[in-house]
Amino acid sequence: AAGSIVLNYGWILLIILSALCL
After folding, report:
1. Between the CA of residue 6 and those of 11, 21, 22, what are the distances in Å?
2. Digit-coded pLDDT (tens) for 1-22
């Protein structure tokens, strides 16, 4: 469960960084 939480958090950060770059 902890692994999936970290993975989901990683995707959220990736999306936020992508939005900031755009």
Report:
1. 9, 22, 24
2. 678 988 899 999 999 999 998 8
Residue 22 CA to residue 17 CA, distance in Å, equals 9
Q: Phi, psi at residue 16, to the nearest 5°?
A: -65, -45
Three-state secondary structure call for residue 21: helix
What is d(CA 4, CA 20) in angstroms, rounded to the nearest whole number? Answer: 24
Q: What is the pTM of this model?
A: 0.49
Angle at 14 between CA 8 and CA 15, to 5 degrees: 90
